[in-house]
Specification:
Length: 129
Amino acid sequence: MTDTHPTRILLAEDEDAMRQYLSRALEKAGYEVVAVGRGTDAVPYLESERFDLLLSDIVMPEMDGIELAQRCNETSPATRVMFITGFAAVTLKASREQPQAKVLSKPFHLRDLVLEVDRIFEDRKQASL
C-alpha cells in the first residue's frame, strides 16, 4: 500500500514576494504548502498540524528561523527542517545549532530549491523501504 497523504511544507518567510514565489514553485512541484510571514505565526501550525518539512528563512522579526526550528524539534520531531538565507554568517550559526538541517543560500533558482526539497524526501522514501 502506498502513502497517499500529500507532502506538507510549512514555509516561514517574512518577505511577501519571496514567500509567494516559493509557495507557487513548491505547489507546482506537487507539495502542499502553508505559508506564514513570521516564525511566531508558524508555531501554532506546528503544534496543531502535521508537516513533513519546515522551510524557514533564518533572519525574521520576532522569532528567527533557528529558534523556530528548535520549537519544531520539540513539538514535531518528525518534521524535517531546511533553512533559506541571504546571510553567509547566519549559515554558519544555523549549521552549528541545527546540524541536521539543510541550508540553502539566497539567491537560488527555484529548480534548485525544488531539487533540494525532493532530495530530502527521497532520503526518507529510501529509509522507509
